[in-house]
Amino acid sequence: MGKILAIANQKGGVGKTTTSVNLSACLAHIGKKVLLIDADPQGNATSGVGVNKGDVHQCIYDMLIDDVNIQEVIHHTKMENLDIVPATISLAGAEIELVSTISREVRMKHAIQDAKDIYDYIIIDCPPSLGLLTINSLTAADAVIIPVQCEYYALEGLSQLLSTIRLVQKHLNESLMIDGVLLTMFDARTNLGIQVIEEVKKYFQDKVYGTIIPRNVRLSEAPSHGEPIIMYDARSRGAEVYLELAKEVVHNG
Ligand code: ADP
Ligand code: MG
């Protein structure tokens, strides 16, 4: 049975999509069968693995709202072992349409049931909000990965995310765990980055991944080429650290 990991933080620009794409690709690279689910209407994970949104006829929207079988929305990527359920802008309507839908919080969980046996890991890239798409993702997940950007106010907003996680645990998914907090965009040249690491470690203790993701320009270039970092520049620091994270995630079980 595959492990389902939701990458969540309601703040935008903290590295959710970069982590979703590159963790997925690095897990695939070390031989795991991986399904990436793009749950953000912006569809950045979709284009990040080289799937052209113009070629997508059915996406996660059709799976969540119209009960289209997941097999029909899965696209292969150019990387071996890596498939994706893409998102297009049509997903933007889902947040509102879900409100009046039966079992609105558990639609993702039910939809991906059939894929659990086929993949070793299912990684869900959440949108930058705590709305129903994120709630669906947390309800479907075994564990959540929380990317935190190494900047001022890094912890701001996290209490809201944590209380959402607790609510999901209480009412929808009691076995949901926090797999880890991932520090991203670390800049070793500033004292600030080091202070943030200390602060986050003080708060989350052993829940913080040993792997810290530095700022790496190759990571920000890769999406415009539609390639995960391990394809775009396998020798970059960005590829090294996401490979290290993949091994840590596997080690966590
Ligand atoms: P989110 O999905 O949380 O909104 P993204 O993963 O899209 O965040 O990252 C926001 C921006 O920062 C993107 O332009 C991305 O390319 C860039 N970025 C993310 N992580 C890094 C990194 N480690 N080094 C350099 N740029 C990064
Ligand atoms: Mg994103």
TrEMBL record:
Residues 3-178 form the AAA domain. InterPro entries: AAA_dom, DNA_Partitioning_ATPase, P-loop_NTPase. It comes from the Bacteria. This is AAA family ATPase. It comes from Sporosarcina saromensis.
